[in-house]
Amino acid sequence: MSTDVRNPYYDGYVGVAQIRSFQIRPTKYVSAIYIPIAPQHVGRAASVGALLLPLIAAACAGAPAIFGTHGLAADRIALLGWVCTIISCVVLGIITILVVVALVRRRPARASSADDRIEHSGHAIRWIVIGGIIVPGVTLVVTFLVTLVIQAEVANPPQRPVATIEVTGHRWWWEVKYLGVGPSGSVVTANEIHVPVGQPVRFELVSADVIHSFWVPQLAGKTDVIPGLRNTMWMQADQPGVYWGECAEYCGLQHTHMNFVVVAESPAAFQSWMAQQRQPAARPIDAADADGLDVFRRSGCGTCHAIQGTQAQGRIGPDLTHVASRSRIGAGTLPNTPGNLAGWIANAQALKPGSGMPTMTLSARDLRTLLAYLETLK
Ligand code: HEC
Ligand SMILES: [Cu+2]
Description:
It contains eight helices and twelve strands. By secondary structure, the protein is α+β, with helices and mostly antiparallel strands. The chain folds into three domains: about 10-155, no CATH class; about 165-280, Sandwich (Immunoglobulin-like), CATH 2.60.40; about 285-375, Immunoglobulin-like. Strands 3-2-1-5-8 form a five-stranded mixed sheet. A hairpin with a 2-residue loop joins β1 (about 165-170) and β2. Residues about 1-35 have low confidence and may be disordered. The chain binds heme C (HEC) and copper (II) ion (CU).
């Protein structure tokens, strides 16, 4: 590292700029933030960094645990994540030591003789060849090979998938269609995907509008959902549980409320869930419920929503045939409680501004009967 430059700012800059060549590696998990910092400001920068840490940690609280995996493919991807993280930490450690050594050992500026310059340049070339070419070269090749092996491992499921689920990304919710099931050839639901535990399930991903990305961090890697394309992927949950999923490609105003859950349950529980989803909607059993269905019809809900077994066959919004059996509404926005459901119908735009669900003007009585009817749609 050159110590001939008098400007301390420039000195620090040269140090960081050289060392940066260690960090050019193809990893999605760690990206280097590169800010030239003058040596006299390093202490202050470090304390600002330390103050920001709790903020970053708080921002991540409640996010799906990408390293707490419970699925075949995700396990392998997490392993790759660890490999990259460890390599990155080692590289960062070495760089930090080098930067500190360079700062501490900085010699005062002096006129350099020709001999001195030759000695320095020999040194510099060794640093560049080892630190700038050999070390990053080996790191790159190792990371690349590990990535290739893991990519090949997660390309195909270990056995034939037991179900095929077509997922359509809409701004901003997920339509879920089990293909080849039931009398109508499919079972349709929204934002909640049930899968049998320990068995691979195949996904076909399509988009109704813009590019989305389908991601259940604990079960499998991300797959883009692209208009005009049918991307496929598979997933296998190894432990029963409810796994959070989300859209991982910014797609507009309510991108952050474009979530879903994957419910992994025993094959028996999955079969009974499927048997129930195959049924048409519960028929109104009393006058109040019949009234509710009538409100649904009169209010035009059926232009956008389908309820199997009724005349409502709209395809713009989620299928409501078994809406009461789902744990959340509005693509993860709210828990599915009667209060939230009422709030949603009366003023969806306040809860999810910009969403495709208009705010409906209903009398209190109509809202009550409509709600009672929707609550029967288990
Ligand atoms: C113009 C089309 C349209 C009309 C009319 C409409 N909706 Fe919706 N609705 C949607 C869309 C789109 C969504 C999904 C919104 C989202 O999550 O971003 C939705 C979501 C819902 C949900 C939540 C479903 C879930 O699983 O998350 C319910 C319940 C619902 N609508 C009920 C109704 C009722 C009841 C009416 C009539 C009073 C109605 N909607 C009228 C488009 C419509
Ligand atoms: Cu999206």
